[in-house]
Amino acid sequence: MSNDCKPTPPDIIGPYYFPKPPKLQQFCTGDPELHRLKTLLVHGHVYKQDCKTPIPHVRIEIWQADHDGNYRMSTDCRGHFKTDKHGYYEISTIHPGRYSIGVHEILYRPAHLHFKVFGRRGHKSLVTQMYFAGDTYLGRHDSCSRCSSNYNELIIQTQHYCHTRNVTDCIEIAKFDIVLERGKGLRIVQ
């Protein structure tokens, strides 16, 4: 972590959140496009505000659109899990799709994953989103003017890993560390 480490920026919760999702480590396994999609492995640590000390056993809820940009309230593209005793988490999913919020399908949200991180040990809870580098709808092109897709700390450059020379045997890897702010309450963009 760099010397200029700061708490992870908050973001909006969005209209598709619902509380108490099921416990999952693999997300979007029911997506009809799963057979042709690369797995997206998302991993990282949850740290205290000092950016060095991991916070163990933190509850994290994640929800996302499927590959086509659809949120379905009954899908397995939402769930919760806890970090391990070292503050580490790892989930597998698929790359979420962009979706239109405009009537004429000209206003898009960039691809993203939603995170709700429940604070522990004197740290605030956080609602944020993870975005993908290179998405043309980031920042000022995001149809959500309140969203935080312009924060570099939330934009992840994925890495590609292939177990063999066969390109169908590849995964996309995203490292997303989360730093919680000291205090009580919830950090969220209203």
List keywords for this structure.
single chain, 190 residues, mainly beta, Protocatechuate 3,4-Dioxygenase, subunit A, six-stranded mixed beta sheet, five-stranded mixed beta sheet, 13 strands
Describe it for me?
The protein is mainly beta. The protein has one domain (34-187): Aromatic compound dioxygenase (Protocatechuate 3,4-Dioxygenase, subunit A). 0% of the residues lie in helices and 32% in strands. It contains no helices and 13 strands. The strands form three sheets. Strands 2, 3, 7, 8, 9 and 13 form a six-stranded mixed sheet that branches. Strands 1, 4, 10, 11 and 12 form a five-stranded mixed sheet that branches. It has a two-stranded antiparallel sheet with strand order 5-6. The chain starts with 38 loop residues before the first strand and ends with a strand. The mean pLDDT is 91. Residues 13-181 form the Intradiol ring-cleavage dioxygenases domain.
Summarize the model shown.
This protein is mostly beta strands and 190 residues long. Helix content is 0%, strand content 32%. The two termini are 28 Å apart.
The CATH superfamily title: Aromatic compound dioxygenase
- The CATH topology comes to Protocatechuate 3,4-Dioxygenase, subunit A
What is the N-to-C order of secondary-structure elements (H for helix, E for strand)? EEEEEEEEEEEEE
How much of the sequence is in beta strands?
25-35%
- What does the overall shape look like? globular
Keywords: Dioxygenase, Oxidoreductase
GO molecular function: ferric iron binding; protocatechuate 3,4-dioxygenase activity
Domain Intradiol ring-cleavage dioxygenases: 13-181
EC number: 1.13.11.3
